[in-house]
Amino acid sequence: MKKILVPIDFSQNSENALDYAIELSQNEETIIILLHSFYVMYTSPEIPMEYVVEQSSAIQKDADTRLAELSKKTDKYDKIKCETISMEGFVVDSILTLVKKRKIDLVVMGTKGASGIAEMLIGSNTAKVIVKAICPVIAVPEKAKFEGIDKVAYATNYLSSDITMLKKLVEFTKRFKAKIEIIHIADGECQYAYEENLLEKFSKKVKHKITYKAISYQLLFGEDVENKLEQYIKKEAINLLALSARKGNLFERIFRGSLTKKLAYHTSIPLIVFHQKK
User: Fold this and answer.
1) Contact at 8 Å (CB) between 210 and 163?
2) 78, burial (CB in 10 Å: exposed 0-12, middle 13-18, buried 19+)
3) How are beta strands 151-155 and 240-245 bridged, if at all?
4) Which pLDDT band, with edges at 50, 70 and 90, does 82 fall under?
5) For residue range 203-232, what is the model confidence (pLDDT) as tens digits?
6) CATH class of the domain comprising 151-271
7) What is the number of H-type helices and E-type strands within the chain?
């Protein structure tokens, strides 16, 4: 039975992530764990500890009530069990602690105000979880709805580790019978024929290691990685974008850019990030 952790801050954004997790899990034996993390701030050491404890207890009691109400969303699904947890602490720390303690298989988190793939995550709690988590993380934009998973894009830089990540992606998507499109974005420094040759060599390695048939390959050109990805996602009606969180690959290229860069496009599909074991 798989375990999915959904952090909840009672915003519409996090509830949307819960809806996505439910749709993702409804045909599979799954435990969905709803986590609300809170932190009681007090500005003066003169405030009695009894007051702080009382405030913390009141917040937790209210959170437990609201989590229990949200958990009812899973009642109509026989294969889904729902648990609720409220705990005092910083959000990211609480998530990472629970991932290890409960051996979570997947974290599904909402992202708000998505403006391009990079800005969807940079500076947010989701970004911190993606970087530090030991399990896959799905970032769900606030307006994204689950519409099935039949077309997934995996961005590669031809690293040998990408094959390991692709195996994980196949395991995740095969029950949906999804088509996986492996894409490489070339920056134009090398000639087209050379890039084609690299892609062909990589495809042979993948075919040797992975028997999944619904895999295709696409070579794209453009220095603006985010923009090229966005164009491709829209044109090909991709349901899910997959990346590997590893230094030196496309994930690093996307997050290396200026945090203040204004992007003229918007992403509306979820992103799943897989991690290399250290």
Assistant:
1) yes
2) exposed
3) parallel
4) very high
5) 999 999 999 999 999 998 877 777 788 888
6) alpha beta
7) 9, 10
Write the DSSP string, 47-105: S-HHHHHHHHHHHHHHHHHHHHHHHGGGTT-TTEEEEEEEEES-HHHHHHHHHHHTT-S
Contact call for residues 86 and 36 (beta carbons, < 8 A): yes
Q: Are 89 and 83 in contact (CB under 8 A)?
A: no
Q: Is 36 helix (H, G, I), strand (E, B) or coil?
A: strand
d(C-alpha 249, C-alpha 247), whole Å: 6
* Residue 112 to residue 11: CA distance in whole angstroms: 10
* Rounded-to-integer distance, Cα 201 and Cα 194, Å: 11
Residue type, 36: H
User: What are the tens digits of pLDDT across the range 117-149?
Assistant: 545 444 478 878 887 888 999 988 887 889 889
> Which residues neighbour 258 within 8 Å (Cβ) at sequence distance 6 or greater?
none
Band of pLDDT at residue 72, cut at 50, 70 and 90: very high
Looking at this protein, which amino acid is placed at residue 260?
T
**Amino acid, single-letter form, for residue 4:** I
How far out from the chain centre does Cα 101 lie? 20
Is pLDDT larger for residue 107 or for residue 259?
107
In the structure, what pLDDT confidence band is assigned to residue 44 with cuts at 50, 70 and 90?
low
Helix ranges (H only) for the chain are 12-25, 49-71, 91-101, 116-121, 125-132, 160-173, 192-209, 225-236, 250-255
Mean pLDDT to the nearest integer, 21-43 = 88
pTM given for the model: 0.85
Domain with CATH 3.40.50.620 in the chain: 2-141, 151-271
Q: Under CATH, which architecture does the 2-141 domain have?
A: 3-Layer(aba) Sandwich (3.40)
